[in-house]
Fold:
Amino acid sequence: MIDAMKAESRRSVRTRAWALVLAGALALAGIAGLSVRAASADPTLPPLTPAELLGKVAAADVPGLSATFEQRSDLGLPALPAGVGDDETASMLSLLTGTHTVRVWTAGDQKSKVALVDGATESALIRNGSDVWAWSSEKQEAVHSTLPATKRPSPTVSPTEAIRTLLTKLDGTTDVTTSGTGYVAGRAVYQLILTPRATESLVGQVRVSIDAEHFVPLAAKVLASDGQEAVGVQATGIDFAVPNDSIFAFQPPAGVTVTARASSGKGEKAEKPKGEAPKTFGTGWATVTVVTMPTTGTDQQAKALLDSLPAVSGSWGKGRLLSTTLLTAVITDDGRVAVGAVVPDALYRALGSR
Amino acid sequence: MSAARGWLRLLGSELRLIIGRRRNQVGLGVLFGLVVMVGIVLKVSAMRHPRSPSGDLIAAVAGNGIFLGFAALSIEIALFLPLAISVLAGDAIAGEANQGTLRYLLVAPVGRARLVLVKATSLAIGALIGAVVVATAGVLTGAVLFGIGPPTSLSGSQLGVADGLWRLLLAALYLAAGLAALAMIGLFISTLTEQPIAATVATAMVGTLFWILDSVPQLDWLHPWLLVDRWLAFVDLLRDPPFTDRIVAGLWVDLAYAAVFLTLAWLRLRTKDVTS
Structure:
């Protein structure tokens, strides 16, 4: 009797242990499914110099692919209050914060599709030969334009030559290296690292991950000078099979607004912004742009937003400082705006030397 | 073999009990009626303001009744479906304890592990019935009020009617998985008390709490871990080709929650003193 009870309790202890193990394993599987950042060792790849790597990228011939990219920004911007600006600016601003998902398909160099997946809406740009469609599910609108039939200009310099010139030019401002390997979306990649030489630059590093087999970029990250990732685009899944033709065949559905736009290229950039032409100071990564703003209407909201920024002053005058992890801007009280990916001091210097 | 048959018999009687209960039938009727009401409201507003071009699910209903199925799911998943599943889950153990029938269930040669599994399975089936009824109500109401045609995907391509209905079924199944995971939380809460109302209210509050936390932008680091975070990703099925990344991640989250709370429910029940 007692033996039976003991056996019973032993069995129940064992089943309980099993159940805990099972539940733990399932929960872990769920967590692993969430964060597929496998902590596996970096792949061993034959070493390549920056010139060799870029040469392979230039020579890469990918017949087609379908991929999903995730774009993240953490610029240290304050979360904007809802309702700032109109819909258009709000949707532009929304790209500066948070996470966005983009699906990409290409087949040859004549067919491509990029779709921005956002909540319950989708915006897409589809190119099929000379037809280009822009689709917005939110506005239920399709814009059609036709590309002029131009032949590709045959390059006058060889790609290797061009890359060498590019690297020589970059060398003055940027340290270009290939350093290490890694995995992006489960694929082995080379890392191309650009490090600005200018100490004033807020950009710490730009890292581009390049697929080790097909030599297409799979990720790009901009690290701020404190080493934090400020902006990044990364593939979360990629398939190098040529996608089905139906993906690129866009037929505007019945009942949507269809606009035909004349071939793009001319007449779009005719309108110049009023006010003085922007002046630039410094070179390379430390470039500062100074613009004189046309006196804008007194938008209460914009003014309130501006007033919430910290006030700064110096020999150059007075103004407000907008400081993010990657970009700094000074808006002076006399209507000048200095912008650059630099520390504030460089902006003050540019404003002072007008 | 006989174990499996006994298991099925227990599940059958449990399902008969759930479906036969008058309050559950009324609940399903309310879920259905809400969809009909939304459909009528949309019909009236569509007659007053003929077609304003806007792309959300609700606006798409005016052009095609199939979208009422999707719109119904997106409306009811916020509150009514979780509420309905909370009622079922709250009843599961606490209801039996409250009526004094839990004792008799356990006196019959039914292991506690098997009892929990049967309750969990019947709750999952309940979640499935709820989601499918809402989707069906949407399509039926939409067909009567707006007519049904080939739906337009979010990517701007035309889908077939059968394809549209198939995607709606997948959406209902996906949401049923999420509701089943919520039901496992409810099942665990239901083992903690003998008051079914308390368990129901607590479960519904947990569901609402998830939604509230999910809407606070300052907590965005927490969002991927919340049960409800990817529920609305069912609209990804309306893209062409369907976008499955978020849905697959959502199913993993559902599975993790279900596994943890089902185990907790079982551990709690096997050491619980059943006195009533």
Observations:
- The interface with chain A takes residues 51, 53-57, 63, 74, 113, 152, 154-158, 217-218, 220, 224-225, 232, 235-236, 239, 241, 243, 245-246, 248-249, 252-253, 255-257, 259-260, 262-263, 266-267, 270 of chain B (CB under 8 Å).
- The mean pLDDT of chain B is 89.
- Chain B has one domain: 2-270.
